[in-house]
Amino acid sequence: MVSLLVKEKIYVNEVVLGTAFGVIMGPHCANVFDPRHWGSHTNVITLEVMRVVLATGLFAIGVELPPAYLGHHIKGLLVMIIPTMAFGWVIVAGVILALFPGLNFTSALVIAACLTPTDPIICAAIVGGRFAIRHVPENLRHILAAESAANDGLAYPFLSLAIYLTVESSRGVAIGKWLVIGCLYQVVLGAALGALMGLAFCHLMKLSDRLGFMDRESFVAQSLALSIFTIGVVSTIGSDDLLAAFAAGCAVAWDGDFKSHIEGEVFSTVVDLILNCGCFVYIGAWMPFTLFNSPELGITPWRLVLLLLAVLLLRRIPPLLLLYRWVPEISGWREALFSGHFGPMGVGAVFVSTLALSRLPSPQSPPQSQAEYLAATLQVIVSFIVLGSIVIRTCLRLLLEKENH
């Protein structure tokens, strides 16, 4: 009832509103529901909720990009993604190692991998509103949206390498499995399958439309159905379902025909809004506030705050300031600084951390091994960074708008 006032006048989006409402409804306030006390299925539910929301968001970004966008902008996109993610992964791992002495470097790499992706849901909420249209150039909005979608899927290789190094008996076995499974089977096969399914459905929908079998509303419904179908197929065989969803969205809208059929329709926007709001309500209630001060695990508020500041300052800004000359979509150092600052963490970080937790042993109290210690601290650290990222970027946006007025 007050969405226009809140989003377009106060510049607070559904991400912040959903998270705040989740905190209020969660176990630390009203105690209406508590996702962390749903028994042994808590992590499975969290993982699948994040997976569905991410997949629909990634598919939507692929569809909304200009036709054949990846074909024309692949160079700049790869420069923004691979070296930037690699730099942030190693630097953040080094900071984690320094702040949390109970973790070794491999465990720090696992946590840092969860923080490498830029969240596409928060990205869409920020670069798609009136504020962004007024203040952010179109070329920058497109490249940031594409990067946020692609790097969620490309977080898999960083995570899988660190996980294999943690659980395998030797580095040779770990690196071999990473190359074959983490890179070829998950990333390359996942992207290829997503693109093939997107192209196949694109041709099927064109044929059905020419024969008069398909109405306009069905094109909109296919957007949601195809994203869920893609992650269902690809995740079943164990490949990178998030990258597949983005590839399918780009492929199905490659020539612009699909986008022309759904342009002006609000159903997909409403579905995205409902899923996103529900997801951040879930995240707000899921936040483990009581664990943010766990001295027995080496976790204290001051360490978490220092890590948050280091992540915001070092994860993206330095590499993009160094590399922006090789990104045609970024025209100067100011845009590079904005792009470096623009690295929200949210659903993607929660998803990757939950996925990592599913591959680690259940921790005892106290933890009996490095893998158990990692499992006990992983989501506590990641959830604090996610919460801090949402709060700080909202405050910065409000300050910028106040200055512009």
UniProtKB/TrEMBL annotation:
GO terms for biological process: intracellular potassium ion homeostasis; proton export across plasma membrane; regulation of membrane potential; sodium ion export across plasma membrane. The lineage of its organism: Eukaryota, Fungi, Dikarya, Basidiomycota, Agaricomycotina. Keywords: Antiport, Ion transport, Membrane, Sodium, Sodium transport, Transmembrane, Transmembrane helix, Transport. This is Cation/H+ exchanger transmembrane domain-containing protein. It comes from Hermanssonia centrifuga. PANTHER family: NA(+)/H(+) ANTIPORTER (PTHR31382), NA(+)_H(+) ANTIPORTER (PTHR31382:SF4). GO terms for cellular component: plasma membrane. InterPro entries: Cation/H_exchanger_TM, Na+/H+_antiporter_fungi. GO terms for molecular function: sodium:proton antiporter activity. Residues 5-392 form the Cation/H+ exchanger transmembrane domain. It is a multi-pass membrane protein. It is found in: Membrane. Belongs to the fungal Na(+)/H(+) exchanger family.
